[in-house]
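not sure who needs this but someone in the group chat was asking about Dihydrolipoamide acetyltransferase component of pyruvate dehydrogenase complex from Dyella nitratireducens so here u go. i didnt clean anything up, its just raw.
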Amino acid sequence: MADIKTFYLPDLGEGLPDATIVEWHVKEGDTIKLDAPLVSMETAKAVVDVPSPYTGKVTKLHGAAGDVIETGAALAEFEPDPNAKQRAEAESTGHHHGPKKPAAAEAKKVTASDEGGEIEASNGNAEREDEGTVVGAMVSGSHVHVEQASSVGGVKAVPAVRALAKKFKVDITRVRGTGADGVVTMQDVKNAAANGTAALGAAPARAVPASAGRHLAPELPQPEPARTAVSLAGKPVRTAPPSVKASGQPEQLKGVRRNMARVMAEAHANVVPTTLVDDADLHAWIGKQDITARLIRAIVAACKTVPALNAWFDGKNLTRTLHPHVDIGIAVDTEDGLFVPALRNADVLDGTGIRAGIQRLRAQVEDRTIPSSELSGYTISLSNFGMFAGRYATPVVVPPCVAIIGAGKLSHDVVAVMGGIEVHRRMPISLTFDHRAATGGEAARFLKALLDDLSSPN
């Protein structure tokens, strides 16, 4: 009987409990070589190519494009080639094999990193340690959650495929999907980009056939008979206002949005937030200036004045870590969800360096090539929501950080000055901090230092 080996989904970084299948690079019955691309998986951070742990025949694939696989669950089965060189059983395979076992084991390296390098992952225990990305117990097993790719504009595709189409400037509504149930795959987008048949703006998007909508949403119920104030027996009845009926259907969160939901719930459960608000007066600014760069410079100045808010706090052990450097997490809103890349060493960057760093991070977020290491480890964060709308907010502090700054929409306000009134351009600032780690006085002094730097001429 052939020796069948089962490959289990490794931890693709930072204790994420699951990942979504984007595209298989093989099919059942194919022969694959050791370390050749096996499958592309979408995590909360990026799209990761998982390499094959064996040289041999692929006998079974667990799940299809769009399915969510739990970390540690069966991903694929192989019949290793007895004549080919395989990794020794005692050698680090670069993956966590097998379901979680009760006995603890030493940490191994996972080579399936979106950076092309290695990331740490433990073999796992019967009770997984909380990695700080999910609240409560996480039940792991071999069950595959079958979920369909989301349908937007009549096109079924996972978020990573839509991101790839955007990167290649491909109109995804004009791409013919070859996946199951017409799902558009990575290869479909690549083919369309290569032959130029679906360039953006080349032609109107295809119309969605009437029959296509039937499997994307439930059939709407037939209208109920009109109600009257008289019953069938001819007697007056008491009527109620018509109920509101929803025509949509629930859709499972995946990838970035799935992780965002976990992180926000964890933050809500573990932080004692307090918010201070005030306005930065920009009237003294000379000439046109980079607003975001000025914001970051002001945050750095405030961190140097009051280091207590440029810190991490461990609520479990009640320890605080003050940082000598300033790494700022900058919230970036995308269709797939919220990313927070880190602008490293902001305290030693000038205005040009800050702008170049922000543009690099945004480009990497938009095409989903940003390394997972750039999405964690920041010491304080910034949400520049005023680019869209809103004056004040209560931004969410994500542990282990102690504080987040929110910048609202600029406005021209009437302000009182000595001898009269003037119209000044002002920026609303919101500071949310974890009151367990910082006092109200420290937060107020931090906010004052930030406002003072913003109000300087240049």
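also The mean pLDDT is 80. if thats useful
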